[in-house]
Task: inverse folding
């Protein structure tokens, strides 16, 4: 039985966490993710969960405590944004290297500086190769659903990697939308109990974690992490299938919208996809074959699959909600063009940096991108800005 | 009654041989004796800061620890342990760990990982009251990376980042008093100790700390032959001189009440502690007498303050 | 767990976790020694001052609370024990003497 509700992205995430009932939540307030630990500590203090809530003194300690808890044999979760994620950066890498399936809610916000509390993806992009699985969410519903699938993916024996569920700050986190929730019992049945093979609190089999890993060993351990990341792809698909059976909501590595015959394609992530879909519907009425690829699984990056999905396009615009500070384009652009290259696909593809620091993304802007694509005959001016004031 | 022979004979070492700490290092005997204060039937989760102890006791695929052990990074030992302790509480509450099985949480960090880069995580974890014992083994500098000054380094010490130069003669600042900072957290138990009097002081304080509920802190002196510049065999002599000069007073603060656990019958001049160490060699050059005087003043000041605190807190008890 | 620098990545423990707690006993440190402690049993009063000071747990103590001869597999020859002995029951010698 599903429950119809109206919740913000943060509420939906906190509610998912309540249904998951993790053993430990360690978090530190930072806009726009603050509400998640706020709502959650209410559940704790009202006895609605079995969780120990650790109100740490920093994000660095939040991730450290999650590592300690997960290593001890418990399910640990946290939530953060922007500078908070940057502050825990060191521990983010250590969590994945220790192969601990910690789950984090990342409410995407621009990293400093200068200080800005609004949404872009610069926080997530800064940790994109930290060995975490990264799921992106267009809506509150997706943020909720991704969270419910997170532990099944992260804790799978072929994976054992931490996972973050991303959603756009304010746009998603603070906007109230209709949402369908599962019954808590169904959620718990779907997720199951956590049974790690080796953990610190196993007094009969004491272990040592986080050794000095010198020249003879670190390389091999890193290779194991890569294998786990590759394994995650199939696990994500399998878990999503199972979730679909339970809820009727279908999830894959990425979503294709009107892609069967699309000539002009936008690739983007998170909330912008909603705006793009509206524009596509409008353009289709005008006879323009516009399409969208919305990335759900950003790590492991489904490069080959995306490249193949782009095969029939005439021109592609890749939208990076990240400041352009590289000479070779934004992270999503680099990933996709690199995948196209290895698949021997040569279609004009241009990059837009957009929506920085919470800059509004309008339908008019998206329409202008499709217009650019229609005019694009060959690869020219690959690095562009969308919605930027300029002389 | 404390009987070291009985303790060693009946409580097996929980810190194995085959570790790669330097010959004569002051830290392993201390860590081993602290772990001997744990009841044999109790399990320990050890959280270790990056530092000498970590890089030489857990080198893949070997570990010297017979209990469960975790190292994550330099500055977050206390935070890591606080997560493990929270997990223990949660699992125990849910009945996933039997009621009669006890696990103790013990952190080990050097002065770099405790006084300096780790003080935030330490302060946070202690304030939150996690049931754990944080042990700082204080060797007075970043020894692991090659003897750089820390806030625990005594004044005038010659280190690789406070070298005794022709203009600046070593570290110019006095050392931070972390034991007092921890006492100001109003913890149930805070103590400063050293491997002295056949480890009695150390063992008894460790036992009290580990078996007092809540967040506890132990500051333990750990002489470093390499960083301090003395022959390896003089380890126990340095421990003794540090205590007998009152450079490193042995005391405890239990629920706010101070108790000096050892008062030397004859307080030795601090130069007796300084003299055997190369890091203070320049203080003994003609013309530098003021440095020894200044050092002595600081030791006296702190010792007198400690005596006053003892008197005051016992009076108001 | 037999892991060494020929072990392929597939056979290593994930995350570098070590499952054999206390297995550093398999790693001998005795070859670090340049000086060697010699135990003179006749002079030993079994006072218990030497064994707790050993950084390397190289002085075995039996259930009768009596020490035995050195475990030279681990003794690094620091000499702390010899200094701790008030009875001259431990003397330091050059390793290859």
Result:
């Amino acid at each position: 039985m599903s429950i119809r509700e109206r919740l913000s992205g943060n509420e939906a995430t906190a509610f998912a966490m309540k249904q998951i009932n993790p053993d430990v939540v360690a978090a530190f307030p930072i806009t726009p993710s603050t509400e998640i630990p706020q709502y959650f500590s209410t559940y704790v203090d009202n006895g609605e969960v079995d969780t120990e809530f650790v109100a740490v003194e920093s994000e660095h300690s939040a991730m450290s405590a999650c590592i300690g808890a997960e290593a001890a044999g418990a399910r640990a979760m946290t939530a953060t944004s922007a500078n908070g994620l940057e502050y825990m950066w060191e521990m983010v890498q250590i969590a994945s290297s220790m192969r601990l399936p910690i789950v984090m809610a990342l409410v995407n916000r621009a990293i400093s500086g200068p200080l800005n509390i609004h949404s872009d993806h610069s926080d997530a992009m800064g940790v994109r190769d930290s060995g975490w699985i990264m799921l992106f969410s267009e809506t509150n519903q997706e943020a909720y659903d991704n969270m419910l699938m997170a532990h099944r993916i992260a804790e799978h024996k072929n994976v054992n990697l931490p996972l973050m569920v991303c959603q756009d700050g304010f746009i998603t986190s603070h906007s109230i939308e209709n949402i369908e929730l599962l019954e808590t019992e169904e959620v718990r049945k779907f997720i199951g109990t956590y049974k790690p093979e080796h953990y610190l609190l196993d007094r009969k089999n004491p272990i040592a974690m986080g050794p000095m890993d010198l020249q003879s060993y670190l390389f091999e351990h890193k290779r194991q992490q890569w294998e786990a990341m590759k394994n995650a792809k199939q696990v994500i698909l399998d878990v999503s299938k199972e979730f679909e059976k339970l809820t009727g909501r279908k999830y894959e590595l990425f979503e294709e919208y009107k892609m069967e015959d699309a000539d002009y394609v936008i690739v983007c992530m998170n909330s912008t996809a909603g705006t793009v879909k509206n524009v596509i519907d409008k353009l289709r009425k005008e006879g323009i074959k516009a399409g969208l690829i919305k990335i759900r699984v950003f790590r492991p990056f489904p490069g080959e699959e995306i490249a193949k999905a782009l095969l029939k396009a005439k021109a592609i615009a890749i939208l990076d909600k990240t400041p352009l500070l590289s000479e070779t384009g934004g992270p999503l652009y680099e990933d996709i063009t690199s995948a196209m290259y290895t698949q021997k696909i040569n279609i004009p593809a241009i990059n837009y940096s957009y929506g920085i620091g919470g800059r509004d993304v309008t339908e008019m802007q998206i329409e202008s991108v499709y217009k650019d694509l229609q005019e694009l005959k060959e690869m020219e001016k690959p690095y562009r800005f969308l919605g930027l004031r300029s002389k | 009654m404390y009987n070291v022979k009985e303790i060693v004979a009946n409580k097996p070492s929980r810190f194995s041989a085959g570790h790669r700490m330097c010959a004569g290092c002051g830290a392993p005997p201390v860590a081993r004796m602290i772990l001997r204060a744990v009841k044999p039937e109790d399990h320990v989760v050890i959280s270790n800061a990056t530092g000498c102890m970590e890089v030489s006791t857990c080198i893949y695929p070997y570990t010297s620890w017979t209990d469960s052990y975790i190292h994550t990074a330099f500055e977050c030992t206390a935070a890591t342990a606080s997560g493990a302790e929270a997990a223990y509480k949660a699992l125990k509450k849910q009945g996933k760990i039997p009621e009669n099985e006890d696990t103790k949480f013990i952190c080990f960090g050097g002065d770099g990982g405790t006084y300096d880069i780790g003080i935030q995580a330490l302060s946070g974890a202690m304030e939150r009251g996690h049931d754990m014992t944080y042990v700082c083994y204080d060797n007075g500098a970043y020894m692991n990376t090659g003897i750089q000054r820390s806030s625990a380094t005594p004044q005038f010490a010659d280190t690789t980042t406070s070298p005794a130069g022709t203009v600046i003669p070593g570290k110019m600042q006095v050392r931070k008093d972390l034991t007092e900072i921890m006492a100001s957290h109003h913890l149930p138990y805070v103590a400063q100790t050293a491997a002295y009097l056949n480890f009695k002081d150390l063992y008894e304080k460790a036992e009290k700390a580990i078996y007092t509920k809540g967040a506890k802190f132990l500051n333990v002196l750990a002489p470093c032959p390499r960083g301090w510049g003395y022959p390896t065999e003089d380890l126990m002599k340095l421990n003794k001189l540090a205590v007998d000069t009152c450079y490193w007073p042995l005391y405890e603060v239990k629920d706010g009440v101070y108790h000096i656990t050892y008062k030397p019958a004859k307080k030795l001049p601090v130069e007796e502690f300084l003299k055997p160490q190369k890091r203070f060699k320049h203080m003994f050059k003609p013309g530098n007498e003021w440095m020894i005087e200044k050092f002595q003043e600081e030791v006296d000041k702190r010792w007198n303050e400690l005596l006053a605190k003892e008197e005051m807190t016992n009076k108001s008890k | 767990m037999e892991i060494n620098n020929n072990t392929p990545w597939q056979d290593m423990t994930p995350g570098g976790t070590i499952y054999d707690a206390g297995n550093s006993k398999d790693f001998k440190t005795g070859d670090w020694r340049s000086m060697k402690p010699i135990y003179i049993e006749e002079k030993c009063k079994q006072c218990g001052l030497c064994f707790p000071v050993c950084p390397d747990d190289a002085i075995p103590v039996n259930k009768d609370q009596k020490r035995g001869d050195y475990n030279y597999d681990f003794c690094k020859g620091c000499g702390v024990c010899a200094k701790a002995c008030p009875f001259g029951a431990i003397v330091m010698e050059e390793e290859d003497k």
In short: Chain A has two domains: 2-247, 254-386. Residues 263 and 313 of chain A are 5 Å apart (CA to CA). The first helix of chain A runs from residue 9 to 20. The domain at 2-247 of chain A is CATH 3.40.50.970 (Rossmann fold).
